[in-house]
Amino acid sequence: MMYSDIGRLNCNVSYTTFSTPVRGQGSDHKEYSSMLLKALEGAIMLETFPKTTVDVFALVLESGGSDLPVVISCASLALADAGIRMYDLVAAVSVSCLGKNLVIDPILEEESYQDGSLILTCMPSRYEVTQLTFTGEWSTPDINEAMQLCLDACGKLGKVMRSCLKEAASGSQD
Amino acid sequence: MVGLSAGEKHFIQGGIAQDLRSDGRKRLTYRSIYVETGVIPQAHGSARVRLGATDVIASVKAELGRPSGLQPDKGKIAIFVDCSPTAAPMFEGRGGEELSTELSVALQRCLLGGKSGAGAGIDPASLVVVEGKVCWDLYIDGLVISSDGNLLDALAAAIKAALSNTGIPKVDVAAETTGDEQPEVNISDEEFLQFDTSGIPVIVTLTKVGRHYIVDATSEEESQMSSAVSISINRKGHICGLTKRGGAGLDPSIILDMISVAKHVSEQLLNKLDSEIAAAEASDEES
């Protein structure tokens, strides 16, 4: 591998064969690995570990909708637990648009009937979006509403993740 | 990777900050678009789009197939992108695979709409011949011949041009069939149906270099980017898809600002592209 003066990040998302309603359907999500990479790389201080690769492996045991946001939030917690230096935790949330309604954190059934979806990952304390995808047709007021909804949810999720890490750290000291 | 010296990097960044890029363009100006249609006789529709030194071909093939059990009233559309090793040395072997998947996924997201088919550029319901039994499967293939940045915008433009060049053969259903039998169909080789391509969006990629963002970045400019946002916008000014590339984070207000800039740029791009496609179609018919 080529020399690099900043660290490398390598991500891999896979599904178990029994994670989806139809066996082996999880291989439809080839793009998740690169999306996880893009969501995380902006948060990690890669310059703090030159000549080193960090591998992130995510395995989806049971797919019940909003898989990618859960994978991203989970991976950022794992990185923090591993002591990898990051600017901030990465929280991810998805919103589905069903008709005129926006639903946050959709389940599998809602996802299969959605007219559009939005995945937003952000660093809550820095208030920076690291990854954002839209599918389906959206008007500008809808985008504003959905993004605000996601950002608020990411803020709340970030707090939960933070307290969870603190608990784990204080638990291991005892 | 583009190898640039510190001086060259500084020159590119400085030019962008002063709204005068190294090829003389302003920040929000596209390179001239050149469209050619009907380049692949074997396909049902094809187009070649050149955007400066970026050169891509899109072809559309239609095959009769069975609709999926979950959505019996919809045809299937698949988009694949292949990066030719002639475009860049790094595409040799399996090197282009990652970029190919990234581009395919981004195009699928931007052109095919939500899972229910809402907001799709092509209505999948128009591809059905006999509900639940026969439908057209549309295979859209993109090929990158030469890469000088902004591949996604060029590919989306090529697909739009290829689809407006596409004629799907008219199908006659021979006789009424009952039960689970596959109906017999007759494919006409004289009559073709055209698509309505007015709803197909264009993709505008805004690349952020320093504090400013530019459209239609060349590969030198792309090497200096901190992040890029690709937004697909249709005639109505609605967002049909959005993908972010590059790792650096963006402030939410900047993203909203980028969307409004992209909307403004997309109007000009759509008009330019439509006139280019019309001109290409006219010269294609003459020859």
From TrEMBL, chain A:
Domain Exoribonuclease phosphorolytic as annotated: residue spans: 7-84, 88-149
BP GO annotations: nuclear mRNA surveillance; poly(A)-dependent snoRNA 3'-end processing; rRNA catabolic process; rRNA processing; U4 snRNA 3'-end processing
Main localization category: cytoplasm
GO-annotated cellular components: cytoplasmic exosome (RNase complex); nuclear exosome (RNase complex); nucleolus
Matches recorded under CDD domains: RNase_PH_MTR3
UniProtKB keywords: Cytoplasm, Exosome, Nucleus, RNA-binding, rRNA processing
Protein name: Uncharacterized protein
Lineage: Eukaryota, Viridiplantae, Streptophyta, Embryophyta, Tracheophyta
UniProtKB/TrEMBL annotation, chain B:
Record GO biological process: exonucleolytic trimming to generate mature 3'-end of 5.8S rRNA from tricistronic rRNA transcript (SSU-rRNA, 5.8S rRNA, LSU-rRNA); nuclear mRNA surveillance; nuclear polyadenylation-dependent rRNA catabolic process; rRNA catabolic process; TRAMP-dependent tRNA surveillance pathway; U1 snRNA 3'-end processing; U4 snRNA 3'-end processing; U5 snRNA 3'-end processing
Signal peptide per UniProt: none
Main location: cytoplasm
Keyword Cytoplasm: yes
GO terms for MF: mRNA 3'-UTR AU-rich region binding
Pfam families: RNase_PH, RNase_PH_C
Subcellular location: Cytoplasm; Nucleus, Nucleolus
InterPro entries xrefs: ExoRNase_PH_dom1 (IPR001247), ExoRNase_PH_dom2 (IPR015847), ExoRNase_PH_dom2_sf (IPR036345), Exosome_comp_Rrp42_subfam (IPR050590), PNPase/RNase_PH_dom_sf (IPR027408), Ribosomal_Su5_D2-typ_SF (IPR020568)
Family assignment from sequence similarity: Belongs to the RNase PH family.
Protein name: Ribosomal RNA-processing protein 42
The species this protein was found in: Corchorus olitorius
